């Protein structure tokens, strides 16, 4: 079953349908559901293959998850695995926004007795804490959660493998710790906090810790034959914040819209933008993939994507979002391995973004402006390097390099007539206009750098001074 929407061109819909169908057929997935979000709403969805009730040699499963042979729809539940981590990160950032924690706080300040308490909340969020990737016991995704009744059962005797803050090392137990932190400060189960603070406000009624029909049963597909083996769907217990959730393409579309725009009932836009800033980067030189605060980051086809993937026995899931294009791609499948859901979700984004580029909002002049701010605009020079300062809405400024690889940043106005950097090299730095004794504008001071109206203006206090002979031809 494929849902067609008038807001996409027929050629785009055909390409999306083809890409998702190829992912299901070539990946040998019993079923696959896909969706695209643009402009904050689902504009396309498709279902491929057939839902088959789980069974055993002794008989069928107690509850038939979906009508046998039915195609999946956008409201069919799949297990989404580590996509759960992004939801847990949202809960942690809500604690930060309320002033209950700081991201640089050692875990021990809020959750004592874990044995890894010197790692910080931020290091856990971005997998920079150096913790082990997995639990010390049997394969935790295929064993009942009651076999891990306490945090020590997911950390083991050697929970720290690398120095904290030195490298990216993905850690499932790290997110179990973050879930325990949420429970400790909220004084109620992680599941209840998640439903009240995130799922209900965002209208995600088909997302939860247990499946509700219709849902896709989980299968392993034999690598050399077209036959299936049922996978167990275990309750993960204390590891739930790392991978427990079930969701649907429609609900993940609502979550994608939140991650693009924010929602004041959950987290504002500025905080969800903070989540997708690189906080841990595996590569040493530049980065092609990285991790923010609960979000995977990927450079692909000239775009920066953010989102998360997930896998549990019987299930694969991926959500990729391009903020610049305002497009998200979602792919869910009920197979342990085979379907390349990550590349497929990325391709869904590219198909829409390339074929139907985002229409920019109409330019409109500012409704109000401040003459003192207008005085700051125009060309400035750091030594001989040209920059421009532009006035933004809301009394903001943007410093833009006009040549080469110069540094560009936006700035927020402060009550003391300074500006604080919001991004780029000058993130957190202070921009200060300096005036002469007669009140005229002399120069800009930005983290000890002096920006002048002319290249190496001799009338400004340029560090090191300006040669008295001035500019001259080569002797």
What's the helix and strand layout?
Blueprint: E1 2-3, H1 10-27, E2 31-38, E3 41-49, E4 55-56, E5 59-60, E6 78-79, H2 84-97, H3 121-125, H4 152-155, H5 172-186, H6 190-199, E7 219-221, E8 228-230, H7 240-243, E9 246-247, H8 249-261, H9 269-275, E10 289-291, E11 296-300, E12 303-312, E13 315-322, E14 327-333, H10 341-355, H11 371-374, E15 378-382, E16 385-392, E17 396-401, E18 409-413, E19 419-421, E20 430-435, E21 441-446, E22 449-452
Antiparallel strand pairs: 1-3, 2-3, 2-14, 4-5, 6-9, 7-8, 10-11, 11-12, 12-13, 13-14, 15-16, 15-22, 16-17, 17-18, 18-19, 19-20, 20-21, 21-22
Q: Could you provide a short overview of the structure?
A:
Residues 48-74 are annotated as: Disordered. The protein has eleven helices and 22 strands. With 475 residues, the protein is of the alpha+beta class.
In order across it, which strands form the biggest sheet?
1-3-2-14-13-12-11-10
What share of the residues lie within helices?
10-25%
Shape: globular
Give me the CATH superfamily of the largest domain: DD-peptidase/beta-lactamase superfamily
The CATH architecture name of the largest domain reads: 3-Layer(aba) Sandwich
* CA radius of gyration: 26 Å
User: What percent of residues are in strands?
Assistant: 15-25%
Report how far apart the termini are. Answer: 77 Å
Q: How is the quaternary structure best described?
A: single chain
Q: What would CATH call the class of the largest domain?
A: Alpha Beta
Domain Beta-lactamase-related: 24-348
Domain DUF7586: 370-453
Region (Disordered): 48-74
Protein name: Beta-lactamase family protein
């Amino acid at each position: 079953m494929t849902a067609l929407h008038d807001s996409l061109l027929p050629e785009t819909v055909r390409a999306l349908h083809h890409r998702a169908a190829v992912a299901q057929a070539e990946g040998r997935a019993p079923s696959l559901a896909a969706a695209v979000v643009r402009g904050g709403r689902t504009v396309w969805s498709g279902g491929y293959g057939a839902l088959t009730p789980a069974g055993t040699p002794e008989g069928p499963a107690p509850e038939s998850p979906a009508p046998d042979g039915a195609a999946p729809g956008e409201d069919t539940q799949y297990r989404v695995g580590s996509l759960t981590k992004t939801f847990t990160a949202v809960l942690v950032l809500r604690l930060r926004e309320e002033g209950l924690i700081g991201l640089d706080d050692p875990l021990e300040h809020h959750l004592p007795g874990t044995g890894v308490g010197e790692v910080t909340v931020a290091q856990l969020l971005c997998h920079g804490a150096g913790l082990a990737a997995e639990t010390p016991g049997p394969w935790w995704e295929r064993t009942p959660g009651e076999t891990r009744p306490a945090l020590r059962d997911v950390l083991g005797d050697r929970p720290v493998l690398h120095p904290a803050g030195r490298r990216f090392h993905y850690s499932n137990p790290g997110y179990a710790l973050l879930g325990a932190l949420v429970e400790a400060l909220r004084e109620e189960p992680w599941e209840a906090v998640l439903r009240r603070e995130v799922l209900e406000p965002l209208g995600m009624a088909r997302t939860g810790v247990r499946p509700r029909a219709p849902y896709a049963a989980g299968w392993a597909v034999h690598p050399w034959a077209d036959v299936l083996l049922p996978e167990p769907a275990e309750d993960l217990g204390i590891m739930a914040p790392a991978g427990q959730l079930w969701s649907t393409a429609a609900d993940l579309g609502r979550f994608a819209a939140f991650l693009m725009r924010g929602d004041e009932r959950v987290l504002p836009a500025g905080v969800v933008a903070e989540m997708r800033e690189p906080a841990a980067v595996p590569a040493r030189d530049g980065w092609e993939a990285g991790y923010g605060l609960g979000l995977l980051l990927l450079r692909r086809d000239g775009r920066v994507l953010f989102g998360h993937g997930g896998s549990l026995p019987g299930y694969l899931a991926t959500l990729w979002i391009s903020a610049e294009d305002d497009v998200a791609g979602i792919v869910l499948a009920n197979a342990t391995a085979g379907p390349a859901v990550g590349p497929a979700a990325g391709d869904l984004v590219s198909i829409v973004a390339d074929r139907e580029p985002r229409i920019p909002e109409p330019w409109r002049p500012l409704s109000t402006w401040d003459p003192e701010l207008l005085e700051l605009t125009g060309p400035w020079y750091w030594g001989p390097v040209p920059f421009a300062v532009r006035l933004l809405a809301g009394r903001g400024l943007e410093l833009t390099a006009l040549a080469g690889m110069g540094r560009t940043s936006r700035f927020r106005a402060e009550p003391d007539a300074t500006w604080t950097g919001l991004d780029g090299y000058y993130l957190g730095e202070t921009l200060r206009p300096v005036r002469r004794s007669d009140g005229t504008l002399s120069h800009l001071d930005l983290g000890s750098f002096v920006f002048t109206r002319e290249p190496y203006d001799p009338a400004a206090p340029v560090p090191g001074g300006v040669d008295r002979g001035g500019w001259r031809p080569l002797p």
